[in-house]
Amino acid sequence: MDRFFELSARETTIGREVRGGLTTFMAMAYIILLNPIILGGAVDVTGVKLSISQLTASTIIAAAVSTVLIGLVGNAPFGVAAGLGLNAVVAYQAAPHMTWAQAMGLVVLEGLVIVVLAVSGLRRLIMNSIPLALKHAISVGIGMFITLIGLVDAGFVAKGTGTPVQLGSTGHLTGWPVAVFCFGLLLVIVLFVRKVPGAILIGIVVTAVLAITINSVVRIDPASWGVVVPRLPQAVVAVPDTGLVGQVDLFGGFARAGALTALIVLFTLVLSGFFDAMGTIIGVSDEAGLVDSEGRVPRLGPILTVDGVAGAIGGYCSASANTVFVESAAGVGEGARTGLAALVTGGMFVLTLFVTPLATVVPAAAAAPALVLVGALMMTQARNVPWEDLTLAIPAFLTIALMPFTYSITNGVGAGVVTYTVIQAATGRARRIPWLLWVVTLVFAAYFAIEGIQGLFV
């Protein structure tokens, strides 16, 4: 096991990997409930709604297989599951124009396109062509992004009245879920700074127990907890309904919706899946100390290939496109450094396939403190950005700022790349820019202008 996963070489232990894998699972387990809600809340062109129970099983199966694959093939401490944002594209951009099977067919094609880009080496070349300063900025931006996710999910930050965001739902901190989050955040910070082994995992478990206890003795609006209400399940074992697995029509969407509409959906899926995963892989690997002095990630080729395969697996299972989860940073913060942690995370997904009710135990208020703490840890990568050089500092800043402000890793990466290329060209350094980066810049320009481009052909 030590040789296969390079435990000694990466200065980790089996215990750390197990804790890290469990922490990653608990930080991303919300997707088991949230993905079915997003996909199940939409209808396809024929008016069909997907079954929540079938979507739950599909989400878990796709996540389990994909996470185990990235652990065994890529030896990376990443959790993989249905990507938020990608599932919204499937539900609200693809499904209104085609059947669910045809929409999932486009997801399979998206995965296959990314596999081709990875196997050909083009995806690795693109990642390596991005300047090191932007790679560090991606880490910082992801840290800010997952911090905002944690704060919003916990209700600590909410949409404001007269302002885009505010403190709590009323401008003040109110409600038991927010109180539970504050307790969990302070607990995990204290445990972490005191270097208690398993600090993040202990914090999540203790806070979840507190949430369950409070919810059982105090009358609380269930909706205030978010997607997961902390209550002991009535049953533990449930038989999975796998009826949606394999329900795919690979090319039917082109005939049903038209080639242009299908291509735009496919382009959006490929670009979002490509750069969301790229940013996450770079950012989490950087935080784990796996990135070399030139910003390269070990075993990047196999990782990128598996990421594409995972996208296709998600489509085949009708769970939407799978991608590397930014919440993997929570496991890295707990010590995860190898694919062994991914095997633990994947194993937990397999377990929840048969004990699905247990996935409803940990609310956002208990998992969110881990995201905030890890966001703070990832922020330390800002020290590696050469802020004195404005030609690098400005693109880095935009990369960092736009990830949380637009709720998208892809938008942040795109803004940084486009700005970097324009600044370099404007200062007479155009020849220093790799040709692939020019191509990526043009692709991002098309991505940002996709609505206007689409309008020219409609």
Describe this structure in words.
- The protein contains 20 helices and 4 strands.
- By secondary structure, the chain is mainly alpha-helical.
- It has a two-stranded antiparallel ribbon with strand order 1-4. The protein has a two-stranded antiparallel sheet with strand order 2-3.
- The longest helix is centred in the middle third of the chain and has 29 residues.
- The radius of gyration is 21 Å and the shape is globular.
- The model has no long low-confidence stretch (mean pLDDT 87).
Q: Would you summarize the structure shown here?
A:
64% of the residues lie in helices and 3% in strands. It is mainly alpha-helical.
Task: Describe the secondary structure blueprint for this structure.
Elements: H1 2-5, H2 14-28, H3 31-40, H4 52-74, E1 80-82, H5 86-94, H6 100-119, H7 122-129, H8 132-153, E2 157-159, E3 165-167, H9 176-193, H10 199-217, H11 252-257, H12 259-287, H13 300-316, E4 322-324, H14 328-333, H15 339-354, H16 364-379, H17 390-406, H18 409-426, H19 435-448, H20 450-456
Antiparallel strand pairs: 1-4, 2-3
Helix pairs in contact: 2-15, 3-4, 3-5, 4-13, 4-15, 5-12, 6-12, 6-13, 8-12, 8-16, 8-17, 8-18, 9-10, 9-16, 10-16, 12-13, 12-18, 17-18, 18-19
Main traits of this protein?
two-stranded antiparallel sheet, 64% helix, 4 strands, 458 residues, mainly alpha, 3% strand, single chain
